[in-house]
Specification:
The protein has 15 helices and 15 strands. It has 385 residues and is of the alpha/beta class. Helix 1 crosses helix 5 (156-163).
């Protein structure tokens, strides 16, 4: 299943946006234009449906409360609204649609409440809230139906889809020094602090298969690397990755992840995420710490691996190298336009000059990236004069 259409109103720095989504999506925009906020729509839906519990109240609370989530430029009505259409594949006739509008209690605890919740299956509405039970007991509106297993029976398929969303923005230092930090891992572990535990929990056969494929890629991308394996510390039982590098003494070239470079750790995390399952995958600036020659191959790599699993990958990027790949279609690009008082996400087909350039053979890096450059960037070097 994949998200084919998204409408967001009053979400963070987006007042109103509507876009179509393909199996592979590149989100482009200037610094602070809202790329992370765009991806957070899907993280929010994941948290809403998470098996760990908390639902609507916790999903809003962990983001700092409704005032931090609602757009500062919100107009009437000031409610946050997310409207998502899903299909098993892009050309499918069958579809799901989930609509959620979130407001706030007018008095009392001022908790987030459901203003509207609707579910459609093939254009037939199978859920409409508030209903008569909600009106009789308004306390019910502090929870969505999609987060409740006793109420989402008819549409649990989409609840499971949202809950399975993967977001990984691996921070090498958190992984490398996890034992020394001994800090609390953030729920859903977006920064890869518990990445080794994820590897350890993977069934042995799948684990070995994935690491073998990653090893093959690393032999090409990482100088002198010959072997990659999973192991546990004999004393503490802690999981580790170990790599064998060429060395003049036999077996003297083994290193654990605390000795890996930032780029090696991020590449391992990226490849593992791509191989992990068929859930929606969110990648934030996957080019970070990677050699430009590797970054130039990321787009076709993602395409090849995602097609094997028919999974959807949505990624944000600034990288010229990544976006120079001629295989990136204009239909796969979403541009965040900051020319108004709020950011607007638009499909590139609606940006006529850039769209025509790509159709004429220009890569996205030349046709679109210039639109993400600040207007007065030439003054940056002399900003402190």
């Amino acid at each position: 299943m994949l998200v084919t259409h998204l409408v967001i109103n009053n979400w963070r720095n987006f007042r109103s946006s509507e876009v179509d989504l393909t199996e592979r999506v590149f989100v482009l925009g200037a610094n602070a234009s809202g790329k992370s906020n765009f991806l957070d729509v899907f993280r929010f839906l994941r948290d809403l449906c998470s098996a760990q519990g908390g639902g609507l109240q916790r999903a809003i609370q962990t983001r700092g409360g409704l005032s931090k989530v609602r757009c500062l430029n919100a107009r009437q009505p000031p409610h946050i609204e997310i409207d998502v259409t899903l299909k098993p594949y892009p050309e499918a006739a069958e579809s799901w649609r989930y609509v959620l509008s979130i407001g706030q209690e007018p008095r009392g605890f001022r908790r987030p409440i459901v203003q509207k919740e609707e579910v459609y299956r093939d254009d037939e509405r199978i859920l409409q809230r508030p209903d008569k039970d909600d009106r009789a007991d308004p306390e019910r509106l502090i929870q969505t139906h999609i987060e409740q297993v006793n109420n989402n029976v008819e549409f649990r398929e989409i609840a499971k889809f949202f809950a399975s969303t993967t977001y990984l923005h691996l921070v090498p230092q958190l992984l490398r020094f996890n034992d020394e930090i001994q800090g609390r891992t953030i729920e859903t572990d977006p920064f890869g602090q518990g990445f080794l535990d994820r590897v350890a929990r993977t069934p042995a056969r799948s684990q070995k298969s994935r690491l073998n494929r990653i090893e093959t890629a690393l032999k090409i991308a990482v100088p002198n690397l010959e072997q990659l394996k999973f192991e546990r510390d004999e004393v503490t039982g802690r999981p580790h990755l170990a790599a064998l590098y060429k060395h003049w003494r036999p077996n003297a070239g083994w290193q654990r992840e605390d000795q890996f470079s930032d780029g090696t750790l991020r590449l391992i995390g990226l490849l593992w995420a791509l191989l992990e399952d068929d859930a929606l995958l969110l990648l934030e600036e996957p080019e970070l710490s990677l050699n430009s020659a590797i970054v130039a191959k990321l787009a076709p790599l993602i395409f090849r691996l995602q097609r094997q699993r028919r999974r959807q990958v949505i990624l944000s990027t600034h990288s010229v190298e990544l976006l120079s790949d001629p295989g990136i279609a204009a239909e796969e690009v979403i541009l965040l336009d900051t020319s108004g008082e709020a950011t607007k996400a638009v499909n590139l087909r609606d940006v006529s000059d850039s769209y025509q350039l790509i159709k004429s053979g220009f890569p996205v890096s030349e046709a679109v990236l210039p639109k993400t450059v600040p207007d007065q960037i030439d003054l940056f070097a002399s900003a402190d004069d």
